[in-house]
Amino acid sequence: MEGLFFNINGGYVEGIVRGYRNSLLTGQNYSNLIQCETIDDVKLQLAPSYGDVLASLSPNPSTSDLASRMTDKLVAEFKYLVAQATGSSAKFLEYMTYGYMIDNIALLITGTLHERDTRELLERCHPLGWFETLPVLCVATNIEELYNSVLIETPLAAYFKGSLSHQDLDELNIEIVRNTLYKNYLEDFYNFINTHPDFSGTPTQDVMAEILQFEADRRAINITLNSFGTELSKLERRKLYPEFGKLYPEGSLMLSRAEDVEGVALAVSAVADYKAFFDAVGMSQGGGGLGGMGGGPADGKSLEDLFYQKEMDMSKLVFTRQFTPAVVYAWMKLKEQEIRNITWIAECIAQNQKERIGNFISVF
Amino acid sequence: MSGAVGREAVFPTRQSLGLMKNKLKGAEIGHSLLKRKSEALTKRFRDITRRIDEAKQKMGRVMQIAAFSLAEVSYAVGGDIGYQIQESAKQARFRVRTKQENVSGVLLPTFESYTQEGVNDFGLTGLGKGGQQIQRCRETYARAVETLVELASLQTAFLILDEVIKVVNRRVNAIEHVIIPRTENTIKYINSELDELDREEFYRLKKVSGKKQRDVAAADAEILAARQKAAEEQGKNPKAAASPALFVEEADTVDVLGDQEDNDVIF
Amino acid sequence: MAVSAATYKERQFLAVIGDEDSVTGLLLAGIGHVTEPPGSQRNFLVVDSKTETSEIEQAFQNFTQERKDIAVLLINQHIAERIRHSVDAFADPFPAVLEIPSKDHPYDPEKDSVLKRVRRLFGE
Questions:
Q1: How much is the ipTM here?
Q2: Considering the domain boundaries, does residue B150 fall inside one?
Q3: Chain A interface, mutation test: which of B70, B132, B140, most A Cβ atoms within 10 Å?
Q4: What is the rounded end-to-end Cα distance, in angstroms, of chain A?
Q5: Cβ of C32 and B111 within 8 Å?
Q6: What span, in angstroms and rounded, lies between the C-alpha atoms of B91 and C32?
Q7: Which of A114, A174, B144, B182 is the most buried if burial means most Cβ atoms within 10 Å?
Q8: Å from C104 to nearest chain A CA?
Q9: Cβ-nearest to C96 among B53, B92, B152
Q10: What CATH number has the domain spanning C7-122?
């Protein structure tokens, strides 16, 4: 049924995205890239997809310049999509930007807490997380004002309300604030795609639910792993777990009780995918520990890498579905990964660390 | 050479001659000791310079590896964490303490890094993602900073030793080229002055003894004349002969004493 | 050499003047320190292309002359280059000024103030 009317509003956007998808780098491109000797060579190799934005860069640019130009292009393309989208698709795209907004707000909170001039921070904000009223937040001089402006001015008000007070912003570590917001965001997004009349029962719901569940699980696992040895209590930790996903509720409960890497491995063992990851990086056998976490296994793949790999695979599969704005989400993730890959390769070349250059995730 | 440095303002007496001789001896001992110190320090200094050179090269590599681990972080986090890190820094976890090392009487400070326990500003950074890479990056950078601290110790030692060696060498040179020649000069001066005095004294005594001899001769002649007169008179008056004989006796005694004195002065 | 114990006993921090990546990395290692308010001072300065040379100069003076709690000052070589005369003129043993490479500017021993002296001493 959804195929019947989707293209009236969403067809153009989807078409554009599928076009964008074709310009993503392939394994062939990557193998050319890793042969490069200088950043200029990299620039040359990237000419088909990024030529227009990279052309104005000075010879042998720094990798951060390279990355920011590529991000600019991604942002420009995404903004075009946003401009074209209507109705529920537009809402969907808006949801995608909330994650970046959270980062930006966290940045501003940090700045305000330390009484820095937050206006300087605006240029550090991620362009995708930009919203019209963001500069208004810079007017706030103390955290209470900021809190009130956030509630009034931003789309994120719902994520603050109920779980964070302005005292919390002052007292809690910014990472806890950020992750609380992110948890609320993920839950809201999940709720949105499951209940919105335009999406429930469509491919959007199918694929996005899976992706978001994965995202939720990944965050829960990462938070658990990263909180070992910090002052984060188990109770606080548990509050940061999104309340859905494949691990929820039993796995989450076990995660919240986990005291070491083995505990985490045990908690996720109910889900075959995650169990495979933990087995692959050797964390489930007692030898793991923090050292194993830090050093990673011999083939250079860390748990984080495997999660990224999985995310990319899922994003790739999204393109097999039609009549859904989820392809925009997938394209965005693929593109971000691509930028990370290129930055990584450029970094390896710039710093002469060729032995690690293959440590990127090629999707196509 | 010796003429240029002049001499110390002393009175040319035997006492100051003794003082100067002691001073010269002291200066020579001091010179050889300082020379040895300077050699020991220079040896150490060369050692340190060589190690600095090596350490600086090593630092280049270490920092590159560290920078690379930061690249891994930005790959994993997928964004910029710089600002957040800058703002969440509160208490230094990585600190240095300074210790002293004694090299030939020079106290060289050495930095020693230590970690302030219980301070962890970035424990939660990267909680959502990238935490493991950040952890690894922190370790890499901590190791890099250790190398830097080591290098800093070397460099400080280098600067201090450089300074100390300069001072010591200056002292060695001062002793060698100024103090010793000047002391020698002074000794020479005192000796020559003393000799001069001796000659003057000798001459004076000679003069005195000459005058005395003349006086004695005159007295003798007078006595002789008196005796002759007496002898002539004895012919007329033999009773008066006893008293002039007594005069002769006295004059002889005085003469002998005078001679002895003269001898004494000469030797 | 009159280096009394008091001059360096309280020197326990490292300071850094560098580009964003270098500073971030060194802060991750845990060298960052912010003194107690009021008048809290940071022991690091991030320099980018927009930073005025006078600002770097001021930070350099602050870390080397005014603050007595800094044992080692790390400065990116390409930034030291911008205030080279100050770096060259600074010859005190405390704090030790150390020129470090940055990500985009590999280390060049030819420019290092101290290494220049080393080389000169060896008559190279």
A1: 0.82
A2: yes
A3: B132
A4: 31
A5: no
A6: 6
A7: B144
A8: 7
A9: B152
A10: 3.40.50.10580
User: What CATH code is carried by the domain that includes residue B85?
Assistant: 1.10.287.3240
| Tens-binned pLDDT, residue by residue, of chain A (364 aa) | 567 788 888 888 889 999 998 888 888 889 999 888 888 888 888 888 888 888 888 888 888 888 888 999 999 999 999 999 888 889 999 999 998 888 888 888 888 887 777 777 888 888 888 888 888 888 777 888 888 888 777 888 888 887 888 888 877 778 888 889 999 999 999 999 999 888 888 888 889 999 999 999 998 988 888 888 777 888 888 888 999 888 888 888 888 888 888 888 888 888 888 888 888 887 654 433 343 343 444 456 778 888 888 999 999 999 998 888 889 999 999 998 999 899 888 888 888 778 888 888 888 7
A:C CB pairs within 8 Å: 6
> Up-side HSE of residue A255: CA atoms within 13 Å toward CB?
32
- B141 CB-near residues (< 8 Å, 6+ apart): B66, B69, B70, C25, C26, C28, C29
Chain B residues in contact with C71 by the CB 8 A cut-off are 96, 98, 111, 152
Under an 8 A CB cutoff, do C104 and A350 touch?
yes
Contacting partners of chain B (3+ CB pairs under 8 A): A, C
Q: Tell me the H-state helices in A55-201.
A: 63-84, 87-113, 119-122, 134-137, 143-153, 157-160, 166-171, 174-195
- Could you state, in order of their start, the residue ranges of all structural domains in chain C? 7-122
Among chain B residues, CA nearest to C14: B95
Question: Whole-prediction pTM value?
Answer: 0.77
Please check whether residue A351 touches C, CB under 8 A: yes
Instruction: Provide the domain limits for residue B108.
Output: 30-167
